[in-house]
Design goal:
binds 2-acetamido-2-deoxy-beta-D-glucopyranose; about 300 residues; Rossmann fold; Class_I_gatase-like; gamma-glutamyl-peptidase activity; globular; 11 helices
């Protein structure tokens, strides 16, 4: 009798845990306008963001700019998370900003209903999230255009969703070695964060950095939503080689992997899916080929649309 109920209990547990994980996560990566458009090259995604997510077991769908609200809503219900990459477009007015706002609003709504939909912003994407949350442009100029830095973790980092699964040794390396690559001229100053009620109540600061003058926020997670941002570039360590300041040490590569694994594990928590296998196949990034651009760009490979 005891054994039987134990077995029932166990099978419930097993059933329950498998029911909670989506083992076919698909994540959207947002495109953005190219600086100087050419025929068939009006928007792009750097391939390193795609590889970053693929390395942790997700498939990728490009989220094109300039789509209708209806198209974005359909896509939102088809994918399991979205990543806003770094780049150089306006966070106040661009195709990137418009799509980012639509998905951000849909994610907030969905998460309020218990539909767990994660959003990640890297560099420009982080700045975009700060703008969307605060409704204001609050960035300060910093001298951080090409420098790898160690993270200064806050007390909140250890218990955070993002970092709690990281090995202690990697946390130690992250805090003592320059493993996080910064390529930005604008930053969210800690002082600005501390005096902005919207940002303060929405985001928990997990790490900060300084350029010597201005202390800035470098990693955040939202308190009540699976929304994450890094001012630095977790994807570059493993996948970009064009700049001498991109770190490639074993701990740098593990940083890429653990960040990717974390975000993909967040995307496994909902079961959004395409209406049909055909719709899914047509949407996947596999329909596009990256171009080798390492000779003239900061990115080794780029998808153009
Ligand atoms: C642009 O793409 C279309 C459709 O893929 C193709 O037919 C055309 O040749 C391309 N144009 C250029 C300039 O590459
Ligand atoms: C997006 O729309 C804007 C404004 O209509 C246009 O200038 C731009 O070329 C479009 N870009 C793409 C990639 O479709
Ligand atoms: C900017 O930072 C670099 C080090 O990353 C330093 O060499 C340079 O002098 C700084 N420039 C200014 C204007 O502070």
């Amino acid at each position: 009798m005891t054994l039987l109920s134990f077995c029932i209990f166990l099978s419930c547990l097993l059933f329950d845990s498998s029911a909670k994980t989506n083992d076919r996560p698909i994540i959207g990566v947002l495109a953005q306008e190219v600086y100087s458009p050419k025929p068939n090259q009006s928007s792009y995604i750097a391939a390193s963001y795609v590889k970053f997510l693929e390395s942790a077991g997700a498939r990728v769908v490009p989220v094109m700019i300039n789509q209708t609200l209806e198209e974005y809503k359909t896509l939102f219900n088809s994918i399991n998370g979205i990543l806003y990459p770094g780049g150089g477009v306006s966070i106040i007015s661009s195709g990137y900003e418009r799509a980012a706002k639509i998905f951000y609003d849909l994610a907030i709504e969905a998460n309020k209903r218990g539909d767990y939909f994660p959003v990640w912003g890297t560099c420009l994407g982080f700045e975009q999230l700060a703008y969307l949350t605060s409704g204001e442009s609050l960035l300060s100029h910093t001298n951080t255009s090409g420098v790898a830095l160690p993270l200064t973790f806050t007390n909140e980092a250890k218990g955070s969703r993002m970092f709690k699964g990281f090995p202690a040794e990697l946390m130690k390396d992250l805090s003592s070695e320059p493993l996080t690559e910064n390529s930005h001229k604008w930053s969210l100053a800690v002082l600005t964060y501390n005096t902005n009620e919207q940002l303060k109540k929405f985001y928990k600061v997990l790490s900060t950095n300084t350029d010597g003058d201005t202390e800035f926020v470098s990693t955040v997670e939202a308190y009540d939503y699976p929304i994450y941002g890094t001012q630095w570039h977790p994807e570059k360590n493993a996948f970009e080689w064009t700049r001498p300041y991109i770190p490639h040490s074993p701990s740098a590569i593990r940083t890429t992997f653990y960040m990717a694994d974390f975000f993909v594990s967040e995307a496994r928590k909902n079961f959004h899916r395409f209406e049909s296998e055909e719709d899914e196949s047509k949407a996947l990034i596999y329909n596009h080929s990256p171009v080798y651009t390492g000779m003239q760009s900061a990115f080794e490979q780029i998808y153009y649309f």
